[in-house]
Amino acid sequence: MAESSPNREGAFDIDRVIHEPARLMVLSHLYVIESADFLFLMQQTGLTQGNLSSHLSKLEAARYVEVLKQFVEKKPRTLLRLTAEGREAFNVYLARMRSILDAVSSREQAKSAPVMRPAPAKT
Amino acid sequence: MDTHRLSELEGQTYRAVVDDGLWDLLLGAVFLLMGVSGITHRRLIPGYLLIAFSMPVWRYLRKRITEPRVGYVQWNPARKSRMKRAGCILAISVAGLLAVLLLPKFLGPEALRQGLLQIPGRWKAAVLLAIPLAIAGYVFELKRLLIYAAVVLLSTAILLAVEARGEWVLVVSGAAAIISGLVVLAMFLRRYPGQGKEQALHG
Q1: Cα R_g (chain B), whole angstroms
Q2: Please, are residues B25 and B175 in contact by the beta-carbon 8 Å criterion?
Q3: Cβ-based neighbours of B103, under 8 Å, separated by 6 or more
Q4: Among candidates A99, A79, A85, A90, which has minimal Cα distance to A32?
Q5: Which residues contact B160 (CB under 8 A, 6 or more apart)?
Q6: Chain centroid to CA B50: how far?
Q7: CA-nearest residue of chain A to B77?
Q8: Which residues on neighbouring strands pair with residue A75, listed in sequence order?
Q9: In A, residues 47-86, which contact B (CB 8 Å cutoff)?
């Protein structure tokens, strides 16, 4: 369960594995599809081969992404898929970020709201 | 990133994979060959054979051109079922079109003389072409197909005004699809130049 994930730390209780921009991009792409190969993720995220590989290793170590190996027409195909744990962690991350941003924007609105001053007394 | 942005991302990903211009090129080739066959009175390849063969050709070209550049993706269940539904709708409309094209052959000239089967007029033929195109454009989220449907209807109106042969509609629409397909394919190839075998390296 993502609620007890060891990856979350800090005052905002944000999952640091997901919070990194490149990994967030990879997870976002994997979240909206079922699975994809390495090349597809590389093209869609714009990450280099080494960069993507290292981020995927971290996501795999956190059990957010799993690697599936298939044979299609006698050729190996490596697919990457978000695990149930990864999907849950991503949902929690989204909810957490939304609540933080909502709290910040409501505080900003309260700050910028015009202060009601009492009208000067008529003489 | 909210749910709206995520569905937008899914749409972007889908378009990145399907916007390779191959659809347009095949469609244009089928239209053009059918149109030229009609104008020259030479049966280059029968229309129904062209339509039947276009799908395996498209799959082959995708495997050769698109997949090595964009990579392989399996869509989420919602997208998969939407595409299946779309395929069914398209197959039914294409079957309807084929039935209209083939029925006169099976019923023979007798049936035509007796008025059992009315050969559709130019407008009917244009609508029969435009409807599957518009349906495919809508369900597969390929806006260009909607434009081709409009080109079919517009060229029919123009050709009727100048009293040209009906087959020119196919030639005009086919040429438009081929030109646009070439432009889209060029853009696709520029965006995704060959990547070698990165996929295999990771595996």
Answers
A1: 19
A2: no
A3: B117
A4: A90
A5: B122, B123
A6: 12
A7: A34
A8: A72
A9: 49, 53, 69, 76-79
B76/A32 touch (CB, cutoff 8 Å), yes or no: yes
- The partner residue sitting opposite A98, judged by closest CB among B2, B10, B203, is B2
Query: Residue written as tokens 């390495």?
Result: A38
Tokens of B11: 């749409």
- Whether residue B2 and residue A78 make contact (CB cut-off 8 A), yes or no, is no
Q: Quick one: residue B120, left, alpha or beta (phi over 0 = left, psi -120 to 50 = alpha)? A: beta
CA angle (A33, A38, A44) in 5-degree steps: 60
Cα gap A15→A6, rounded to integer Å: 8
Q: Is B71 in contact with A41 (Cβ distance < 8 A)?
A: yes
Query: What is the CB neighbour count within 10 angstroms for residue A75?
Result: 10
Give contacts of B7 with chain A, Cβ < 8 Å.
Answer: 32
Interface of A with B in 11-40 (CB under 8 A): 24, 28-29, 31-40
pLDDT in tens, A88-120: 999 999 999 888 888 888 887 777 766 666 666
DSSP state of A4: G
Nearest to B72 among A24, A37, A69 (CB): A37
Q: Do A77 and B13 touch (CB under 8 A)?
A: no
Q: Residues B46-99: pLDDT tens digits? A: 766 777 788 889 889 998 999 899 999 998 888 888 888 888 877 887 777 667
Other beta carbons within 10 angstroms of residue A19's beta carbon come to: 16
Do A38 and B16 make contact, defined as CB atoms within 8 angstroms? no
Here the contacts of B61-64 (C-beta below 8 Å, separation 24 or greater) are: B61/B22, B61/B26, B62/B20, B62/B22
